[in-house]
Design goal:
Helices cover 33% and strands 16% of the residues. By secondary structure, it is an alpha/beta fold. Helix 4 runs parallel beside helix 5 and helix 10 packs parallel to helix 11.
Amino acid sequence: MTANAPITQDVVTIPRKLPETDRTNLIGLTRPQLRDVLIASGTPENKAKMRVDQLWQWIYQKGVRSFGEMTNLSKAYRAELAGKFAIAVPEVVSRQISADGTRKYLLRIAGGHEVETVYIPEEGRGTLCISSQVGCTLTCSFCHTGTQKLVRNLSAAEIVGQVMLARDDLGEWPEPGRAPKDETRLVSNVVLMGMGEPLYNFEAVRDAVGIIRDDEGISLSRKRITLSTSGVVPEIARTAEEIGCLLAISFHATTDEVRDRLVPINRKWNIAALLDALRDYPRLSNSERITFEYVMLKGVNDSDADARRLVKLIAGIPAKINLIPFNEWPGAPYQRSDWERIEAFADIIYKAGYASPIRTPRGEDIMAACGQLKSATERARKSRAEIAAETASGG
């Protein structure tokens, strides 16, 4: 990574060029949006709220994809809906299962682009890591996804669709006749830590999280949804107010000099600006604490001095620090810190009064671990040497 790595985009939504279709996809529409399209298509206004409630429960509570199965709607209305609307989710191109049970899905979305989604089963919980963009603008030098150029933002439908497809694969939709609350939740937590920077796709992420949280549908509480950002400072307060989920920060360094190199967005909003924006987040969002993600890079950011600086920097912010052993990928310019060094780093943080769990690497054998996601077509298109050269040049 050179000092001339590109700075991230401004806080705008990149236009999406989706193929035109005669039928509107209902997935990804908020309740008000769904009501509007139903009325515009001929549903009487005085029945629109009831129809929204019925469709919402069929789609998001029961996982139904066919209007024909919606038995509390008349046959005529079902036929009318089928002619005007679709219930469409991304296409599963491939599914890989790691030796540790981690599942990685390669999904094809509109325009033929691809993203990856990862399901991580753990004792007592199951975490789904979803993507918000195809590629990424951030060019973080330790991240495989960052070596893939940004293609476009995902729609709310494509973000929610990742959760729905995982539930399909895991057989998690409620059995007929059973209330959703009675079911074991295999997808108990969702993290926006996949491909992309969620806060550069704010509106779609906000709408998707709202759908995932809705009590009459997928019904995950805000405390079970975590959004990870590299530090898009102008959007942090807005995230607290409009999304309100838990927040994780890709921090990774304790000086601006090192963070400029690892996370180039730091050149736009440095550590001081980021921490200032974070101090109000727990109060604004009613969250207990912020998670600081810190990837452990040998000889780069893993010294005792770094650990002590980290503790001083976050003083006054309710926080925990997730230490992430670096997950290597072909051409990566870094190495994982030695285990003894990681433990020593964690011990300093723990003695300062902060939780400092060391994340167990998961899914490394299928390139599903943190920082390894990248569409298979992009990966296959480039040799190890090309990836290494690309990384060295900051591209």
